[in-house]
Amino acid sequence: MISRERINQVIQENERRLAAINVHFDPVTGEGSLIQRKRLTLTGDLFVLLPVTMYAIPWIRHAYALGSLEALAREACRKQKIRFKNTFYSEMLSDLITLRLDHDFEYWAYLSVKIIDKKSGMPIPFKLNLPQRELVAVLEQQRTGKKPIRVVIVKARQWGGSTVTQIYYSWIQIRLKTNWNSVIVTDVENQARNIRSMFTRLAESYPIELADDPERPLKLIPFEGSSKTRQVRDRENIIDISSTESPESTRGFDYALCHLSEVGLWKGTLLRKPEDMVQNIRGGVKKGAYSAIVMESTAKGVGNFFHREWIAAKTGKSGYYPFFMPWHKFADYLETLTIAIDTFIISMDDDDWTRWEQGATLEGINWYRNYMRSENMDKWRMESEFPGDDIEAFQSTGTPFFHRKYVQMLRKSCRAPLAEGNLFADAVIGNAGVLRNIRFEASPKGLLSVWEFPDKSIVVKNRYIVSVDIGGTTDEADYSTINVLDRYW
Fold first, then answer.
1. DSSP letter string over 47-100?
2. Given 24, 59, 295, 345, which residue has the most CB atoms within 10 angstroms?
3. CA 321, 139, 312 angle in degrees (round to 5)?
4. Please, are residues 186 and 262 in contact by the beta-carbon 8 Å criterion?
């Protein structure tokens, strides 16, 4: 029986989680943003929360010191020995807005970008949802830290990860950098073309007053007659597309921004693996500040290239930030309780508590229950469509034989290999030398992983028995697995 104290703890935590999901976000004032900001009073009760990077601008820093933008305008008038007029304040506010467009992506996106509302079908200002704001906070932390932007995203639901990535790249190309080329790479070229169309639609509705030249609206034009490559007019920035069908086409440009989409779907062959294609593309991307590589995909089972990239990022073995967005952070997936909250908590089973431990609200668990019942979805499919964490996302996709719960129990006792490398002998083929002078040479890219070396302190004839499950070299083949049994003990 769950205790009264535990029920109260759950209720209190649930209120905190609901507040985080439903936090008010205003891209104009900056309220609800996850980017680090500092409050600046404009005049009277009006204020804005500006990105802290703007504090480095001397006159804005001086406005903070004086207490408001209006106070700065009044001081400027006193120094010039002229009477204060609102026009002085208005001019400073205009300058502040112009500078903010180069520092505040969320503000620029709201003023500059139109997207199609799924409910009404009408164009509306691009106001970032909570998952998108969390991703932008990661991108901005790397950019403002003068580091290359490197992120790997596991996508679950359609929360607009590709959209915000591409619009973020557009911001860099439109406002911040010139001669800063980007490339979109997908499994099939039409997918890349669809992603680039976001920039095309952005350009068509871009406010003329925000363009570099008010008499020349923002426009994408063909680059040297190419049907695949576009250029941002007056910015000298190229937006290229490519696919795994023709990866060599990406070698002609110097890229600074790279968007690798649905990498988990990329098909490989014996001669061309997804990791080889990714490495070729990544090798040609700039390494400095304002460069970016975002690799994203839905999970497609474990053990494949994308899963390995995710694990490397998650364990800190790569320079990529691992980003996953669970279903329970979406405000759309909340359903008001129809019974007393105490009664609901007492009614929760093991699966409900698993959702709770992942971070779901009680209202989210209620939605999860009802949706699963109304759509007649089994547990496995529900976890695949609405994963609560990255482990569930990968384990609930593909064609696993064992249930993820039991796999996770075994994973707790897993450890990294003691060494990785290859075996060598005096010969590669033939009877003479293949078993002579056998030796292990360590290599981080070796094909052999070793968890324990043979014990040479106690010599026993035929001490070890080796069983081998031979894999293959095709895409569908498993790894070859060697199990070593020590007979001595």
1. EEEEEGGGGGSHHHHHHHHHTSHHHHHHHHHHHHT----HHHHHHHHHHHHHHH
2. 295
3. 10
4. yes
Q: Which two tokens stand for residue 424?
A: 């060598």
Token pair recorded at residue 103 = 């520092």
CB 153 within 8 A of CB 262: no
pTM score of the predicted model: 0.82
340, with CB counted inside 10 A (0-12, 13-18, 19+), is exposed
The answer to whether 109 touches 128, Cβ cutoff 8 Å, is yes
Q: What is the pLDDT of residues 19-55, one digit of tens each?
A: 999 999 999 999 999 999 999 999 999 999 999 999 9
Rounded to whole angstroms, the Cα distance separating 406 from 330 reads: 28
Using alpha carbons, select from 330, 396, 339 the residue that is nearest to residue 368: 330
pLDDT tens digits for 14-25? 999 999 999 999
- Residue 429: the pLDDT is 87
Determine the 3-state secondary structure of 430 from DSSP. coil
Partnered with residue 467 across adjacent β-strands are: 483
Q: What are phi and psi of 71, to 5 degrees?
A: -60, -35
CA dihedral sign, ordered 326, 327, 328, 329: positive
Do you know the residue count of the chain? 489
Nearest to 184 by CA among 127, 116, 236, 230: 230
CB 489 within 8 A of CB 465: no
What distance in Å separates the CA atoms of residue 363 and residue 207, rounded to the nearest whole number? Answer: 40
Q: Which residue has the tokens 């002078």?
A: 437
Quote the tokens at residue 394.
């990968």
Please name the helix (run of DSSP H) or strand (run of DSSP E) that holds residue 294, with its range, or none. Answer: strand 292-298
Contact 325, 137 (CB under 8 A): no
- Measured CA to CA, the distance from residue 421 to residue 443 in angstroms comes to 4
